Amino acid sequence: MAILEMTGIRKSFASGEVLHGVDLTVEHGEIHALIGHNGAGKSTLMKILGGVHPDHEGTIAIDGEPVSVRTPKEAIEHGIAVIYQDFSLVPQLTVAENIALGREPRLGAAALVDHRELAARSAREAARVGIDLPMDQPVGRLGVAGQQLTEIVRALAQEPRILVMDEPTARLAPGERERLFAIMRDLAERGVGIVYISHFLDEITSVADRITVLRDGDVVARLEAGETDADGLARLLVGDDAADHRRAAAATPSAGGVMSPAAPPAEGATSPATPAPDGVTSPATPAPDGATSPATPAAGGVASRAGAGTPGLEVTDLVVAGRPPVSLRVAPGEIVGIAGLVGSGRSRLAKAIVGAAPSTGTVAVAGRALRRRTPARAARAGVLLIPEDRKTQGLVMTGTVQDNIELTALGGALTRAGLVRRAARRRLVADAVKRFQVRPADSGRIVDTLSGGNAQKVLLARAASAGPKVLLLDQPTAGVDVGAKAEIARQIERLARDGVAVVLISDDLDELLALTSRLLVMHTGAVTTTLNTADVDRPGLLSAISRVRKEAA
Ligand SMILES: Nc1ncnc2c1ncn2[C@@H]1O[C@H](COP(=O)(O)OP(=O)(O)OP(=O)(O)O)[C@@H](O)[C@H]1O
């Protein structure tokens, strides 16, 4: 008998019906992937299971028994734990207290809640599943990945029978993802039914037992994981187009030639790279391994060309949080990637460049130094950061799509007197919505009612429309579906072709290899390796990232 049966689920918002009678069955001990494009209805279906949307039609049965799940409390009582895409943590409370929050109702019988005991139990819980977290730190001080891991431990601490994970890996680095899969397999072996939502189709085919595919609120396929591969899934998701994009992206040589006329392929791109003893290939570029080594352009190929003119972005001796100084030059039209583990300081470096985190050192844009750096001044100088955490740092969630895009995009839509041209403004927003495939393509939609992936696209559309000189992108495709991901990659290339200097922080190694000309690898706030992308492959990059981990151990 199935552990979970959702039958005939329908749900409407003011804008109309978004689930049109969905059935979902999960067996005991099964990892069941739920996939679909951005806005297909995955999160809404899981919020119904978590008791967040009581006003739905259809039934939910656990072990064959119909149950009422009309509040989050009822969901917990039935043994359902949901890890939502957008976190539900209390930033001021410590990691341990946040983990304990989920368990407090169970301890209600005790007259007093012993917080020290709760904290100790949280630490034991995290240790049991092998997740390392700073238990005493306020959760608000953790990066997005740390918060994601806290959510995961909190859900596991409830010892659920049914565990839902809505894009748990979108914000995790490769090592953490593997750890999470091991936890999921272990739980499944113990009979827990797991619903797993992800846009990483390769992950789905390796980790899931069965797959349900949603498209625009309808189930369009149910299959065993072995029945198809990632390309087959992409076709099911959004039709053949997306699969074609994906194949095109995969076929793109990672030789730096994809990016821009300003930085054509490295001369050495086709010559066989000599693998260094640890698997990192860097013949043309002896990777400066000292923690303090500046990440200036490496010799040869793309890098030397990039080093020729005035750099779009020049960061000199930037010291962030007492770590070794970082220096970096990015030419107009160049895309430089930053790889590293969670907590390696990538996001902080990007924030420091625009003045959103304290630092010393200098930042120059197109040859002009940015004085007294603040995000607003940086934006005026043409440096935009798209942060990792779209909800708290990027978007005005209560504003419309149009409001958000206009926040920085108005430059091109002003009359000489500085007045906003109505028609130009509408065109600019409509164009951005179309280019980035925001669904629904309605610029009057309040951003808070968009699905997560679509909110991410609004953020990118906004930055692209602002005509930046330098764009710092922190995990730009996290949570974005496969079709839109390929489109975003194309837009990044297009921006580079238009002369924007781009810094791309990503956990997606394929994305880094396909789009960048150079790669910096960071560890605990320092740049430890610089590579010409042309000289490195996926295993090589992975090893460069994990090598620093071993060195640190
Ligand atoms: N609170 C809300 N008010 C109005 N519409 C909503 C609300 N929440 C979701 N929707 C709409 O419901 C549809 C399904 O959204 P949902 O978040 O379930 O998609 P999803 O498949 O999880 O997408 P993603 O992969 O981007 O997270 C979308 O059209 C979305 O705009």
From TrEMBL:
Renumbered residue ranges of the record's region Disordered: 247-308
Domain of life (superkingdom): Bacteria
Domain (ABC transporter) ranges: 4-241, 308-549
Transmembrane helix recorded as keyword: no
InterPro entries linked to this entry: AAA+_ATPase (IPR003593), ABC_carbohydrate_import_ATPase (IPR050107), ABC_transporter-like_ATP-bd (IPR003439), ABC_transporter-like_CS (IPR017871), P-loop_NTPase (IPR027417)
Molecular function GO terms recorded: ATP binding
Residue spans of biased composition, Low complexity class: 281-308
Protein name: Sugar ABC transporter ATP-binding protein
Taxonomic lineage of the native organism: Bacteria, Bacillati, Actinomycetota, Actinomycetes, Streptosporangiales
